[in-house]
Design a protein that fits this description.
The complex is a heterodimer of chains A (68) and B (433).
Chain A lengths: L1 H33 L4 H28 L2
Helix pairs in contact in A: 1-2
Chain B lengths: L4 H9 L1 H29 L3 H11 L11 H9 L4 E4 L2 E4 L1 E6 L3 E6 L13 E3 L2 E4 L2 E5 L8 E3 L5 E6 L5 E9 L2 E6 L17 E2 L4 H26 L8 H21 L3 H23 L12 H17 L3 H8 L6 H47 L6 H45 L5
Antiparallel strand pairs in B: 1-2, 3-4, 3-12, 5-8, 6-7, 7-11, 9-10, 10-11
Helix pairs in contact in B: 2-11, 4-10, 5-7, 6-7, 6-11, 7-11, 8-10, 8-11, 10-11
Classes of the chains: A mainly alpha (68), B alpha+beta (433).
Chain lengths: 68, 433
């Protein structure tokens, strides 16, 4: 039973990260469309911000694994 | 319709090339699917042969397990004491320490491992179970080299916390002996903890790291030599491959984040980036051991600890002031902010560790599970038609995932480096107010 509750926790964490990274990706696309010449800077910052959002999700996933 | 004429003409010239390409592609897919099946045949248990063995040793029947792709994937991405390339097992040196027995140093070839990584010889009470050294718990088990049963028996045993775990049992003299896995320094968090022996062996992951270290050393020393010899000339060969990647990290990561101190930290950032990238890519090569080094929590933890030390040892007064007593905010906010900031110091390297580990492990697991789907749908080889059908589908999916993993290998190495650079940048920033 513990396993399935952990899976729900993981799923919830992934929803949050999905919304966050989706926002980042969408806004980055908009920014690139507005200023195609800044594509390099935008991409680097996009990856950096997505990594930070991912970090929060990873902590949630690991905690959902550990707490039984 | 005169304007479309050239288009049609061009299409009429193309087909032969396209058909040829398509034929190459299809035969490539077929070959890959078939190779999966060749491996699957090898992994099928031989019920009659194994059955006879069991009767001989008198340890009873091996309980029939339903194929579990998750467990198989975990076993395949784990570290091993043998290096298996395709059907060949290469022995690695074992340095094992058991309290009360002392050191045992020998080659893992002494275990005489089969294709599953199960050894049928016990050495000093150590046995090889699915590629990993385990130690027999019972002290009365004879030391030295002893012939034991051909495969381990897995039985569910509850540990002290009441968590069920598959424990390998070894058959010897019609007796089942309980084995223990090696000690891990996770304090029991991930199901490990201190057991009856310590493993300091040169495992598959360590061997892969040494290979990558040697490869990177050779690459960078030869490139450095080329820069000295060909001063002022255009880059050539390996130089031309390394230079754009090196300049990308230098210009996109080091310079913007580290300000005028970038030259001081450049060697560290480059070492991090190329070491992680090399290991990520090395793990992607199929049938070459498939070592999952950057998907190992211990390896990423050491990388993160090094980053933690570099960041905090180079932190200036400004950095520590912002952690312990953030200037410019009211006192009651400071009381909340200070614990959060102190936690942040440790959470930053922890997310670095987890991010790399989770991304690489997930990539490796997805591939094993896609191959495992073949056995799920073919009911372990009973339904051959479904098996062949799934083999083609999962081969295509695996190819697709592998190309994504190639991208992930670069992105994760880049992310680790850029985050390290941004943490160092934040720690060394001069006050400007």
């Amino acid at each position: 039973m513990g396993g399935s509750i952990a899976a729900i926790g993981m799923g919830l964490a992934v929803i949050g990260a999905g919304i966050g990274i989706g926002q980042i990706g969408g806004k980055a696309m908009e920014a690139i469309a507005r200023q195609p010449e800044a594509v390099g800077d935008i991409r680097a910052n996009m990856i950096l911000t997505a990594a930070l959002v991912e970090g929060a999700a990873l902590i949630a996933i690991v905690v959902s694994f550990l707490v039984k | 319709m005169p304007t479309f004429a050239p288009l049609f003409k061009k299409r009429a010239e193309m087909p032969q090339k396209i058909i040829l390409m398509r034929r190459y592609f299809l035969s490539f897919i077929c070959l890959l699917s078939l190779s999966v099946f060749a491996f699957s045949q090898e992994h099928q248990e031989n019920p009659t042969g194994e059955g006879q063995q069991e009767v001989e040793h008198g340890c009873g029947e091996q309980a029939e397990h339903e194929f579990d792709p998750g467990a198989t994937a975990f076993h395949h991405i784990a570290d091993q004491n043998i290096y298996s390339i395709g059907p060949w097992n290469f022995p690695l040196p074992c340095f094992l320490y058991a309290p009360g027995h002392g050191w045992s140093v020998f080659s893992s070839g002494k275990f005489h491992a089969d294709a599953h990584g199960n050894g049928h010889v016990a050495v000093d009470g150590y046995v090889l179970v699915e590629g990993m050294v385990n130690r027999i718990e019972d002290a009365s088990f004879p030391m030295g080299e002893v012939e034991v049963g051909h495969h381990p028996y897995f039985q569910k045993v509850k540990n002290a916390e009441g968590v069920e775990k598959d424990i390998a049992h070894i058959c010897y003299n019609s007796h089942l002996y309980t084995t223990r896995e090696r000690s891990t320094a996770d304090g029991g968090l991930f199901g490990g903890g201190v057991t009856n022996f310590y493993d300091f062996s040169l495992t598959k992951n360590v061997t892969s790291m040494i290979i990558i270290f040697a490869l990177l050393s050779w690459m960078f020393l030869s490139v450095a030599k080329a820069y000295k010899q060909r001063d002022g000339m255009a880059p050539k060969g390996l130089q031309g491959f390394i230079e754009p990647i090196f300049l990308f990290i230098q210009d996109e990561v080091a310079k913007p984040f580290l300000g005028h101190k970038w030259e001081q930290y450049l060697p560290f950032l480059m070492a991090l980036f190329f070491f992680i990238l090399g290991l990520n890519l090395f793990g992607q090569i199929p049938f070459l051991g498939g070592s999952n080094v950057t998907g190992n929590l211990a390896v990423t933890m050491v990388l993160a600890i090094i980053t933690f030390l570099v960041v905090n040892l180079s932190g200036n007064k400004h950095y520590w002031e912002h952690i312990f007593w953030m200037p410019g905010v009211p006192a009651w906010v400071k009381i909340i902010l200070t614990p959060v900031e102190i936690l942040g110091v440790f959470i930053k390297p922890m997310t670095l560790m987890l991010r790399l580990f989770a991304n690489i492990t997930a990539g490796h697991m997805v591939m094993v599970i896609f191959v495992g789907l073949i056995f799920v749908f073919s009911e372990s080889g009973i339904n051959a038609g479904a098996g062949y059908g799934t083999a083609v589908g999962s081969t295509l999916l695996t190819l697709f995932m592998m190309s994504i993993e190639l991208l992930v290998a670069f992105i994760q190495a880049f992310v680790f480096t850029i985050l390290t650079a941004s943490y160092i940048g934040a720690a060394t920033e001069e006050a400007h107010h």
